[in-house]
Amino acid sequence: MTSWNLGGLRTEQALSRFSTYEIGGEARFVGTPQSQDQLQELLEMAYRRGITPIFFGGGSNMLFPDRPDPDALFLTTREMVDVKLEGDRLYVSAGMPMSMLAVIGHGLGIADFDFTFLLPGTVGGGIYMNAKYFDRHISDTLIHVHYIDLHQPGGIQTVTREACEFGYKQSVFQRNRSNWLIVGAEFKLSSSEGAVALPMLPELADFQEGKLPPIRLPEFASYFIGWLDNKNGTGARDSALAPMRRIVQDRVGKMHFTYPSCGSVFKNNYSVGEPIGKLADHLNLRGVQRGNARISPVHGNVIQNVGGATAADVIELIHHVQEAFDRHYGFVPEPEVVIIEGKASSLRR
Hints:
By secondary structure, this protein is α+β, with helices and mostly antiparallel strands. It is about 25% helix and about 20% strand. The chain contains 9 helices and 16 strands. Strand 6 (about 85) and strand 7 (about 90-95) form a beta hairpin. The protein is globular, with a radius of gyration of 20 Å. Keywords: Cell cycle, Cell division, Cell shape, Cell wall biogenesis/degradation, Cytoplasm, FAD, Flavoprotein, NADP, Oxidoreductase, Peptidoglycan synthesis.
């Protein structure tokens, strides 16, 4: 392949535009495929030209570098937003926003995906991290995951839920993150009575026209909360929206959408007995700031971009928290945010 005029290929793009952190320098190549054919063409181009693909979804759990590697293709599946329903099986492509699962579930009259409401990532990213909210995980109703293995060219690979090695915020895809790219998944629904309704869902019309929810957290929250507000008071099914209303109260109350962030920065260490946020509170870490990055004043496991923060600012705060935990608790918390290293960056693991 000799042409750079490929569908979905953009050049000289600020990665901050693709991240809920709103952090990241200018990348030489960014891939935004809308189909599996475009995706395969971009991967072929990268392979032939010795360019390293770096995969991501909605950029909600990523910290992009201040100085991106010029020989990298930052490839997002965010614009791959297909959905199909066959009986009690729901196929969703990797770029579908997780919050849309809750919207689709409501349209089908099921509560299987209520917990995904206001989760800002994509389905592919959610599977990669086994996204959760309280005691619910995206892997709970998963059947199969479809992915591309760069070491086995020639098509889409499929893996069963049992082979995905799901655990607390972990999956087999993390171990293979450089080579495996999730492109879609199948879920088993608790009921298939709403099968006829799926093509008629008005919320899917925007996706068919290429209109995606915003990436920036305030606008993202407004998009989905606006949908919920429009559904309130619409009759008997109004009570089915109660779990989503509780999620709004919880997440808005914790200022999850007030400033750019990636949500929780560290994985909880359940052997200690308390979540990372509570342990950080005991050390008075709330509000600590480095540059323009700050530990949230209301949640000790969230680092916010309060205006113009760099990846270096966030990493400095991550190190500060790790050192404080190591001194006082005897363990170093593991980051859940995926930190992409640039030309001159490093991270203690």
